[in-house]
C-alpha cells in the first residue's frame, strides 16, 4: 500500500489524513509532541474530525501520528500542511514551510511526490519550496512538485474534502498526473490548472474576495445605521435580485487563519511586483476598525462612558461552532472595551480557556456584546444576561446591534 506523509496535523493536515487514510497508509507528522500524544491515543483536536474514526484508522494500521521526522523517509507522497501566518510587521511568514522543507530534505533520500497544501503567494512552490528542499538534501534528488491549495472550511458539514472541487497543478506534467491520481482516490471533483502559480493565486483571490466583500458590508452597516435603516432588511431587499448580487453580512471583523491573512499575502506579492493593492489593504483596515466602531456605539448607548461597567463578550471564537480563536475579532473588541475602562469577561464554552482566562457564566453583566453566536448558546439566555445587549451577529433579536 502507498505510504503518505502529511506534515502538520492541524485543521488541514489532520482532516486530509483522515480522508487519505481510507485509501493509503498515512504517517501524520507534527513537530508538536503534545498533539502527537493526543492523536496517538485516538483523540482528535479538530472539529469535524471524529475521534472514533481516528481511533479506527489507528487500529487498522492506516494512520500513525509521529513527531519523529525519520518516519517520513519511506513515504511516496508527502503533503505539506503547515501554518503560513504573518510576521509581527504583517508580512508573509514562510518559516514553517521552510522548516517542513528541511524535514523533507534531510530525511527523504529517494524521489517522491511533494504536494503543498499550505496557502501562500504565487511562486512559493517553484521559487521557495523546491530550492529549499534541494538545499537541505544531502544529494541532488529529482522530486516531483505540485500544489493543491486546501479549501476546507472547518466545522462545515455540507462541503468537505470529498465534494469540494480541488485545484491542482504540478511543476511538470508527471507531477500533475501523479497529483491527480493521488487526490482522485478521495476527491470527486479535480480541477487542473495550467501552472502551480494559477492555483496559488486562485486560493488567495478566493479569500481576498471574501475579505473585500465583508469590508464592504461592514462599511455599509455603518452607513445604514447613520441613515437610521436596518442593514439586515436592506441587505435582504438587495438579495431579492436574482443575479449580480451576493449577500455578505456585517460582523465585528474577520478572523481565523485565512481571511485576515491570505489577502495580505496577495498584497505583499503584488507590491513586490510593483502592482497596486490599495483596495485589498483598505479592506483589511475597514475590518480591523469594526471593533472600535462597535465599542464606540456601545459606549454612546451607555451614557458615553464604559468606566467600571461589567461587560460580557459573548462568543470569542472567530466563527460559530468552532473553538478556533486565531485572529478573532473578539480580541480587538475586548482590547477597546478595556481601554475604555470596562471590566471585561467573556463567555464561550466551546473555547473554554483563552489567553490565561476562562469562560465566565452567561449572566450578571451590565452590558453584553455578542461577537460570535454558537448554535448551542440559547438566544433567550443571551438576552437575559445583561440589561443592554449589543448584537454584532444578526442572530440575536436585541434592539441594539449592527
Ligand atoms: N484552517 C483552515 O480553515 C484552512 C483552510 C484552508 C487552508 N488553510 C491553510 O492550510 C495551512 C495549515 O493551516 P492549519 O489551519 O491546518 O494550521 P494549524 O495551525 O491548525 O496546523 C498546523 C500544524 O502544523 C504543525 N507544524 C508547524 N510547523 C511544522 C513543521 N515544520 N513540521 C511539522 N509540523 C509542523 C503545528 O504544530 C500544527 O499542528 C495554512 O497555510 C493555512 O492557511 C487553512
Characterise the protein shown here.
It is a single chain. This protein has helices at 11-20, 33-40, 51-59, 95-107, 124-136, 173-184, 196-226, 231-238, 262-272, 278-301, 329-339, 379-384, and strands at 3-7, 25-29, 63-66, 77-80, 113-116, 144-147, 166-170, 190-192, 310-314, 343-347, 353-354, 357-358, 367-370, 388-391, 400-401. It is α/β, with parallel strands linked by helices. The protein has an eight-stranded mixed sheet with strand order 3-2-1-4-5-6-7-8, sandwiched between helices. Strands 10-9-13-14-15 form a five-stranded parallel sheet, with helices on one face. Strands 11-12 form a two-stranded antiparallel sheet. Strand 7, helix 6 (173-184) and strand 8 (190-192) form a beta-alpha-beta unit. Helix 4 crosses helix 5, helix 7 (196-226) runs parallel beside helix 10 (278-301) and helix 10 packs across helix 11 (329-339). The N and C termini lie far apart (55 Å). The structure holds nicotinamide-adenine-dinucleotide.
Amino acid at each position: 500500500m502507498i505510504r503518505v506523509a502529511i506534515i502538520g496535523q492541524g485543521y488541514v493536515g489532520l482532516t486530509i489524513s483522515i480522508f487519505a487514510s481510507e485509501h493509503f497508509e498515512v504517517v501524520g507528522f507534527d513537530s508538536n509532541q503534545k498533539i502527537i500524544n493526543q492523536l496517538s491515543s485516538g483523540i482528535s483536536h479538530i472539529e469535524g474530525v471524529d475521534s472514533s474514526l481516528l481511533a479506527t484508522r489507528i487500529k487498522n494500521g492506516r494512520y500513525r501520528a509521529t513527531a519523529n521526522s525519520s518516519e517520513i523517509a519511506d513515504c511516496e507522497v508527502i503533503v505539506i500542511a503547515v501554518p503560513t501566518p504573518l510576521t509581527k510587521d504583517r508580512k508573509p511568514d514562510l518559516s514553517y514551510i521552510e522548516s517542513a522543507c528541511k524535514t523533507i530534505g534531510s530525511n527523504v533520500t529517494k524521489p517522491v511526490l511533494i504536494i503543498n497544501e499550505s496557502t501562500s503567494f504565487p511562486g512559493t512552490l517553484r521559487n521557495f519550496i523546491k530550492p529549499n528542499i534541494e538545499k537541505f538534501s544531502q544529494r541532488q534528488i529529482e522530486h516531483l512538485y505540485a500544489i493543491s491549495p486546501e479549501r476546507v472550511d472547518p466545522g462545515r458539514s455540507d462541503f468537505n474534502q470529498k465534494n469540494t472541487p480541488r485545484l491542482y497543478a504540478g511543476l511538470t506534467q508527471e507531477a500533475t498526473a501523479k497529483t491527480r491520481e493521488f487526490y482522485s482516490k478521495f476527491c470527486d471533483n479535480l480541477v487542473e490548472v495550467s501552472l502551480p502559480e494559477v492555483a496559488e493565486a486562485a486560493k488567495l483571490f478566493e479569500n481576498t474576495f471574501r475579505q473585500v466583500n465583508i469590508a464592504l458590508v461592514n462599511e455599509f452597516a455603518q452607513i445604514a445605521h447613520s441613515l437610521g435603516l436596518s442593514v439586515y432588511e436592506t441587505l435582504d431587499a438587495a438579495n431579492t435580485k436574482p443575479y449580480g448580487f451576493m449577500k455578505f453580512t456585517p460582523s465585528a471583523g474577520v478572523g481565523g487563519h485565512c481571511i485576515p491573512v491570505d489577502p495580505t499575502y496577495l498584497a505583499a506579492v503584488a507590491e513586490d511586483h510593483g502592482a497596486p493593492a490599495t483596495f485589498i489593504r483598505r479592506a483589511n483596515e475597514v475590518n480591523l476598525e469594526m471593533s472600535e466602531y462597535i465599542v464606540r456605539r456601545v459606549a454612546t448607548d451607555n451614557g458615553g462612558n464604559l468606566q467600571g461597567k461589567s461587560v460580557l463578550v459573548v462568543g470569542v471564537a472567530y466563527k460559530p461552532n468552532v473553538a478556533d480563536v486565531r485572529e478573532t475579532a473578539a480580541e480587538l473588541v475586548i482590547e477597546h472595551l478595556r481601554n475604555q475602562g470596562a471590566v471585561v469577561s467573556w463567555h464561550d464554552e466551546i473555547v473554554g480557556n483563552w489567553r490565561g482566562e476562562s469562560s465566565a457564566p452567561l449572566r450578571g453583566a451590565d452590558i453584553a456584546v455578542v461577537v460570535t453566536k454558537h448554535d448551542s448558546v440559547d438566544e433567550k439566555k443571551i438576552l437575559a444576561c445583561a440589561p443592554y445587549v449589543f448584537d454584532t451577529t444578526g442572530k440575536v433579536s436585541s434592539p441594539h446591534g449592527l
